[in-house]
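Work through this protein:
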Amino acid sequence: MTEKPRRIAHLDMDAFYASVELLRYPELRGLPVVIGGRTIHQPTTLADGNRHFYKLREYVGRGVITTSTYEARALGVFSAMGMMKAAQLAPDAILLPTDFDSYRHYSRLFKAAVASIAPKIEGTGIDEIYIDLTDLPDDTHVLAERIKQAVFEATGLTCSIGITPNKLLSKIGSDLDKPDGMTILGMSDIPGRIWPLAVRKINGIGPKASKKLESLGITTIAELAQAELSFLRNHFSASYTTWLHDVSHGIDNRPVTTHSEPKSISRETTFEQDLHPLHDRPALSEVFTALCTRVAADLQRKGYVGRTIGIKLRFEDFNTVTRDITLATHTADPAAIRRAAGECLRRVTLEKKLRLLGVRVSTLSSAHASQETADSPQRELPLLL
């Protein structure tokens, strides 16, 4: 029996966080908007019923942009850019604080809408998924239209979708016709649509590898595809060379994985200003407790418990340290996580100011399975440091 040709889709929500905010503030449509402010940048309602929005020029600190609308991107303002630098490029852009609870809500909505049509889904982030359409009977173009319409009806948001024989090409394809785009490609389309693109468009070729390839005279995917394997082996490892050769020819056999267990669940925050362990102790303590509470809530929402509690500290000189402790039993209790994280904190010399604080829980287990184990007789394990 002949195996069906694979049809793999990559769906990417358009400027997701910003688009969610525009549902809340429709008067900002068509304007440059930047997401990444603090709670003090929450819009306020004036006496006349209009809303007052903060401008990017009013931001002071060292935060980074979470995302921006396409109008802001046209001014050179992109995600991960420093706020102060962005303010120089687009001082009059509207500044909004992040609201991850809302983004997670809309993420669940769009994924459920897709699952009602095509249940073989691999989640790769809050705003993107891979979908295996291979076994569905419908025409590819019809399926793509149905999925896009279902997402819009469920959320009021648009998405872009790429459908190709594999995950590699679909990831590239979903970005080719943004926003609200649809790109359907076969292997025969690679020379015309994929090869002219920059090598950095391949997911897995980061800035470092891209810069190295550029130094070798390779800037496009076509040039990479034409490079001799022996030449690439002189500059990269054997496995990476093979991978570069395969992806430049559109080869990717990875399956769509519908379920994977997380290895850890964590929360961290970067402070707008460095905080001193002694002088700013109340503020640090409040943030530390809040992080532990949020991690516990994440564990409970996802149905996990964990045994290893860890912390991450980054100091003003960018030196980063981690500490962890393994408990006798699994937990998702915020107080237990706070106590264990506090034990880790006591094992760090706190003299320099802090710029980042994080809490992580690993050695995860299903909460249901752990409860069954707890209900059966067992020997208590010692506390491991």
Summary: The CA atoms of residues 197 and 220 lie 5 Å apart. DSSP finds 14 helices and 15 strands in the chain.
